[in-house]
Amino acid sequence: MFGALIAKIIDLLFPYRCLKCGKVLDSAGYLCENCVNEINFITPPYCHQCGTPLHVDKDSNVKYCAVCSRQNKKFYRLARSAVVYDNSDKNLIIAFKFFDKTENANLLAAMLKVAGKDIFDAGVDMIIPVPLHRSRLLKRRYNQSVLLADKLSQMVNVPVDRFSLIRHRKTRPQVEFSGRERVANVKDAFSVRYPDKLRNQRIVLIDDVMTTGSTLKECASALRKAGAKSVDLLTVARVVD
After folding, report:
1. What is the pLDDT of residues 101-157, one digit of tens each?
2. Contact present, 132 and 140 (Cβ < 8 Å)
3. 10 Å Cβ neighbour count for 7?
4. What's CA 110's distance to the chain center, in Å?
5. Residues 180, 218: Cα–Cα separation, whole Å
6. Cα dihedral angle (190, 240, 47, 113), rounded to 10 degrees?
7. Any idea what DSSP says for residue 50?
8. Minimal CA–CA distance to 51: which of 107, 117, 108, 121?
């Protein structure tokens, strides 16, 4: 009885709040109903390989986007994202990435778990977060992709490797570039320090946002050169044209 009273007092003093708008929630949770309804979750139909939304009827026989239909070989096995990157979710991700709102990690990792169902059903041996260069890590104090990977690992019971993939070359933030400049900025910036740990492993790469995919492509290339059996891409959000 005393414990229940203490719990009620804590609820009054520290109520659950929506991570997006700050509204007090009636029960434990992450987002209020209005904010959930505003977010553009990526749901079927989407491309079976790259996961981009398809603008076709749900009953359509179209399984692949125009790009994947033309390209038989990809640098990854499957790619999935939870939401379209736009104003409905941008503040959640930016606050998590740059403004120490690390409490957002639970919600975003839960989104990754749902979005990554196809990937985990196909089989995954290891989760690897996209690494930061040590200079940027010292400045930011945490790698948002590592936090996501750790939370997701607990949810899906797949181990995380935080140390094998490294960013050995310092690069400028990708937001400063567009198109081919992004490709050049991260070209050969990643390498694998412990290839024996990754050989014949099915790996899922974790990041917050996929824009052009240049960073993920370079990471995947390094992992495949190190002997990974397959590489999947899983991000919270993706930019959709």
Report:
1. 999 999 999 999 999 999 999 999 999 999 999 988 888 899 999 999 999 999 999
2. yes
3. 10
4. 10
5. 13
6. 70
7. T
8. 117
* Residue reference for tokens 């959709």: 240
Q: What is the pLDDT of residues 79-113, one digit of tens each?
A: 999 999 999 999 999 999 999 999 999 999 999 99
Tokens of 228: 């990974």
**Domain layout of the chain by residue ranges:** 75-238
Tell me the C-alpha distance between 126 and 52, whole Å.
24
Cα Rg of the chain (Å, integer): 19
Q: What is the pLDDT of residues 20-36, one digit of tens each?
A: 998 998 877 899 999 99
* pLDDT of 12 strictly over 60: no
- CATH class of residue range 75-238: alpha beta
pTM over 0.85, yes/no: yes
**How many residues are present in the chain?**
241
Evaluated on CA atoms 161, 166, 170, 174, the torsion sign reads: negative
Tell me which amino acid residue 9 is: I
**pLDDT of 198 over the 90 cut:** yes
